[in-house]
Amino acid sequence: MPVKKKIPQIETTEQVDWAPRIEVKAQLADLRAVLERIKARDGVVGYILRAETSASVDIKDPSKIIDYAVLSASTLESVEGLMEAFGLGKVCSVIVLGKDLKVLLLTVGEHRVSVFMEKNVDHDLICKELL
Amino acid sequence: MNEEVYNVALKTALTEIKNICPDINGSFILMNNGTLIAGDGQAIDSSAERAVSSIQDLAEKAASVGGLDGLLIEGENGKVYVSRINDMYFIAALSKQTDLTYLRNVTGVILPTILKVLDNISPETAPPTPLKPFQHFPQTQFKPAPSKPLGKEEVIEETVDEAEAPVSPEAPEVLESETEIEAQDEEEEEAQSEAEAPKRLINLPSQQLIVDKFGGLMVRSDTVQIDSEVLQRWGSLMDVKEIREVDVETFSGKTARCKAKVISDEKLEGRGLIRIPEKLCDTLEVKRGELVRVKPIVPESD
Q1: Which residues on B lie below 8 Å from A20 (Cβ)?
Q2: Are residues B9 and B115 in the same domain?
Q3: pLDDT tens, position by position, B222-271
Q4: Is A34 part of a structural domain of the chain?
Q5: Which residues from chain A sit within 8 angstroms of residue B69, using beta carbons?
Q6: Which residue range forms the structural domain that includes residue B97?
Q7: N or C: where does chain B have the smaller number of CB atoms within 10 Å of the terminal CB?
Q8: Can you give the CATH number for the domain in which B278 is found?
Q9: Contacts A68 to B, Cβ<8 Å
C-alpha cells in the first residue's frame, strides 16, 4: 500500500519562474485526481506535486521519496541552467531518462508536477492528460 | 596525440551531424573525463561550461533512476537534447521544429560508430585520460558504503601512477626489488583492507524523521536530538557503542553534519522526531513537521 505524505514545502523569497504559466484552470483537487488516475496506470511509479507552499508526494516505494524529491528539485535547477546557457527561454516540459526509470517534469498552472514512470510508459500521453 | 586524434574525430563528427541535421544550433560532446568538445564554429565559452556543469549535476542526482541516459527539455524557443553514448554525453541545442527521431537515429549511429572505429584502428587512440567519473562531482555525504574496500582503489591508483613514471633502463635491479617490496606492501595492504572490509561494507542505515524545532540560550546549533531507540538501533547495526554524529538531508537536498544526542524531553520520545536547533533549521531551510533523512556517521575510532 503506497504511503501518501503531505510535506509542507520550504518558502523561498526568490520564486524561480522556471516555466511559462500554462493557461489551464487546473484546481489542485482536479490535478490530484488526474495524478491519481495516472498513478494507477501500469508502469507509473508515483508523482510529486509542488505548490508554492506545499508538496504532495505519492511514490509507491516510500524509501525513494527523498531521492526522487531531490532529483525533481535539482532537475529544475539544472534545466534552468541549461536553458540560460543556450538562451532557449522558459522551460515547457522536461523528460529525464534514467537507466531504470524516466521522469516527466512540467508546470501545470501554479503547480510543478514530476511523474516517475518506467521507461516503456508513453510520457506524451501523460503530458497531454496533465495539460 | 591520442587526445588530439579523439578530439578531431569527434569534432568532425559533430560538424557532420550538424550538416545532416541543420536544426542543430549548437552541439557538444562531454567526455567522461570532463573534457568538452564542440563542433566547428562553436566556442566553448562560459555558457557552455555552465551547461556542462548543469548536466554533471543532474547526472549525479539521477543515480536514483539508475543514472542519466538522456534528457529532453522543451523550451519556449527551442529544445535541448542530451544523450549518453558509451561513457560520454552528446548535448545539442535544437530548434523547436527538430525531428527528434531523425536526430536520435543519426547520433545513435554516427557517434558510436566513430568511437568504435577509433578504438579498432589503434587501441592507443582510446580516450587518453583514465576512465574516471566526472571530475568536479562534489562528494555527497550520503553516498552508500563503498562496494569494495577503499584501500584497494588507492593501491590501484598508486600502481597506475608508477606504471606511468619513466623507467630508467640503467637501474633495472633496483626497480625490480622496489617492485617486489611494493608488491609485498600491496599484498599487506590488501590483506589489511580485507580484514577491515566487513566494517567498511556496512550498509549505513538511514531514517526519515520529522523535524521539530527547538531553541534556547544554551542550545548548541550543531547538535540535534534523536530518539534514544533510533540511536541504539543504529549503534547495534553498526556495531558501535554510541552514535555521535549524523548527516541530515532535507527534502530540497541540503545536508548538514551534526552531533547527535538523545531527545531531552521525554514526552517527545518515540514519535519519530528529530529536534533541530532553530539556527540549524534556518541553515537547512526546514520547518517543523517536514521530513528529513538522517544517516548516522561511523565513528572513526571504532
Answers
A1: 76
A2: yes
A3: 889 998 888 888 888 888 888 888 988 887 778 888 889 888 887 777 77
A4: yes
A5: 97-99
A6: 2-125
A7: N
A8: 2.40.40.20
A9: 64
Contact A75 B79 (CB under 8 A): no
Q: Which of B255, B249, B291 is nearest to A59 (CA)?
A: B291
Q: Which of A77, A86, A91, A131 has the highest number of chain B CBs within 10 A, making it the mutation to test binding with B?
A: A86
Q: What is the pLDDT of residues B15-58, one digit of tens each?
A: 888 888 888 888 888 877 677 777 666 666 777 777 788 888 88
Residue pair A129/A108 in contact by the 8 Å Cβ criterion: no
Secondary structure (DSSP) of B205-264: --EEEEEEEE--TT--TTEEEE-HHHHHHHHHHHT-S---EEEEE-TTS-EEEEEEEE-S
- Domains identified in chain B, total number: 2
Domain that holds residue A43: 3-7+18-130
Using a CB-CB distance cutoff of 8 angstroms, which residues of chain B are in contact with residue A15?
none
- Dist. CA B212–CA B281, nearest whole Å: 9
Amino acid at site A86: F
Is B81 inside any structural domain?
Answer: yes
Determine, yes or no, domain membership for B278.
yes
> What pTM was estimated for this model as a whole?
0.54
Domain count along chain A: 1
Q: Give residue B284's Cα distance to chain centre.
A: 22
Q: Is residue A73 part of a domain?
A: yes
Q: Shortest CB distance from B73 goes to which of A55, A77, A94?
A: A94
* Measured distance CA(B187)–CA(A72) in Å, rounded: 45
CB-closest option in A10, A75, A94 to B286: A10
DSSP string, A24-79: ----HHHHHHHHHHHHTSTTEEEEEEE-SSEEEEEESSGGGHHHHHHHHHHHHHHH
CATH number, domain with residue A22:
3.30.450.30
